[in-house]
Write a structure and sequence with these properties.
With 502 residues, the chain is mainly alpha-helical. Helices cover 56% and strands 7% of the residues.
């Protein structure tokens, strides 16, 4: 495990994203020591019968019911079984790994009191790619997602390994492990905290950074086909607007469009271009600024303890504290903001697609069709982009305001952090498709330019990459398959810019 990411004090969003995409995880000696000490504190609380939520009491509205020592292990097991009530399609591989990484990181702070054996089993499952099947729906925060992971540890539930679906017990057996006999508090710790939302949020941030660079690349290609304003992205005027994101986008556009003979030929023929072309730095830049703020939220969450209760002190002087650290309000608000920003980025891309295919404004063949009338070209694929933008608008409604009351008024405000991250990922999925349509349409537009002027070196390279996937479109095959190829290329390769995630 020489190339594993080693968790010492905390993980970052980049490290969680790397683990989600296949990197292994290990804990430092200090992290293992923190785990051992916290477990010893919980054992001392049990021994001294000091009241602690979920240790020797029931959970939720049953928090004042005292649980005898003989029943505390049963409580831990029962919590996992009763809380495993998620429904719907399971999370994907990357999403599952991200959640598991964030969960281990939360335990490794050393304030949960979960045993070394439980974390060793979680690490073994993660690093060997035996991934618990986590139903994606039915959570207002974290409980059902996390319970599905905990089930596997006790030999219940299901795991997916490669293309095989096996029982949790079989997964442990293949790893040479026995089902864990959970101790006091461990069942609660396994379902508690914000790791579900945090893991998904880290993956959201990673995917969004990747797509931001592709959005700038797609916009540059479209602008080169349609732009007519002289020096629209010049450095000095843009510097008057104080926004780090705007300045980054301005640099990207100047980099991508440098040396374009197409733009030289048209420059100055229009005083101002339409906003979907002219305002790329201002809108794309604002989106980058929002994402930077979300990064701070995710990294703060990863550096924080989000269990409840937490244990402190020492085995000789154990302390337990009931707080509300498992509430993910910051993540919910942050992911809602990211969702809105991603929807905005998709909306401006769709407007640029419309200008590429619309003969009323493009100066190009109607709908970029090979033959007008006989071929419809990209007429209907713009409908697809418009439909996805409308879907994004619905998805961008803030999850953090959904509220709700659960557990007999005990949990009477809900911040929906996990659903907020989940719908942000759904919007990013739509965004990737819309950007693929724009790249594909821009490539088609290059082929139909009335002049033979040369593209910029870097946009020419992007055009060549698109044409390496799909040829000029002549209504000769289903267009959704063409989009899928460009989308796949964008998902697996970089746009070639030096963005914040590099």
């Amino acid at each position: 495990m020489a190339d594993a990411i080693v968790l010492d004090e905390r993980l970052t969003w980049k490290e969680v994203a790397a683990i989600a995409n296949g990197a292994e995880l290990a804990l430092s000696a200090e992290a293992w020591q923190r785990l051992s000490k916290a477990r010893a504190i919980v054992d001392a609380l049990v021994e001294r019968a000091i009241r602690g939520y979920g240790i020797n009491t029931g959970v939720g509205a049953l928090c004042d019911v005292i649980i005898d020592r003989d029943d505390q292990q049963a409580l831990s097991r029962n919590i996992l079984l009763s809380h495993s009530c998620g429904i719907g399609d399971p999370l994907g591989k990357a999403e599952t790994r991200a959640v598991m990484a964030a969960q281990i990181a939360n335990f490794a702070h050393g304030f949960s009191g979960i045993s070394v054996e439980v974390v060793e089993a979680l690490l073994a499952l993660l690093n060997a790619d035996f991934l618990p099947v986590i139903p994606s729906r039915g959570s207002v925060g974290y409980l059902t997602h996390a319970a599905a992971i905990g089930l596997v540890l006790i030999g219940e539930g299901e795991c997916r390994h490669a293309d095989e679906l096996i029982s949790g017990r079989e997964a442990l057996k293949r790893l040479g492990l026995d089902p864990v006999a959970l101790k006091a508090k461990e069942g609660l710790s396994l379902v508690n905290g914000t790791p579900c939302a945090t893991g998904l949020a880290a993956l959201t941030v990673s995917r969004f950074f990747h797509l931001l660079d592709w959005a700038d690349a797609a916009a540059a290609m479209t602008y080169e086909n349609l732009g007519a304003q002289a020096e629209p992205f010049a450095e000095m005027p843009l510097s008057l607007r104080h926004s780090a994101g705007l300045q980054q986008v301005g640099r990207n556009l100047r980099h991508l469009l440098a040396g374009s003979q197409l733009l030289t030929q048209s420059a100055g023929s229009r005083t101002q271009d339409p906003l979907s072309l002219r305002a790329v730095p201002q809108i794309h830049g604002a989106v980058r600024d929002v994402l930077r703020q979300a990064v701070d939220v995710v990294d703060r969450e990863l550096s924080s303890v989000t269990d409840n209760p937490i244990v402190t002190g020492s085995p000789g002087a154990p302390q337990v504290h009931s707080q509300a650290h498992a509430v993910g309000a910051g993540l919910g608000l942050g992911m809602d903001s990211v969702a809105t920003a991603a929807a905005e980025l998709a909306a401006i891309s769709e407007r640029r697609i419309d200008r590429l295919v619309n003969p009323l404004v493009s100066g190009l063949p109607a709908f970029l069709a090979a033959e007008n009338g006989v071929c419809s070209g990209f007429m209907i694929i713009q409908y697809t982009a418009a439909a996805l933008v409308a879907e994004n608008r619905r998805l961008a409604a803030p999850a953090s305001l959904d509220g709700g009351i659960t557990s007999a008024l005990q949990e009477d405000i809900l911040t929906h952090a996990t659903p907020a991250a989940d719908k942000a990922l759904a919007i990013l999925d739509n965004l990737q498709t819309i950007l693929a349509i724009e790249v594909m349409a821009a490539a088609q537009a290059y082929d139909q330019q009335p002049q033979s002027a040369a593209k910029a070196v870097r946009t020419a390279a992007l055009y060549a990459r698109a044409r390496g996937e799909v040829p000029f479109y002549r209504d000769d095959r289903p267009l959704n398959g063409v989009v899928a190829k460009i989308r796949s290329m964008m998902g697996t390769t970089s746009a070639g810019l030096e963005g914040e995630a590099s």
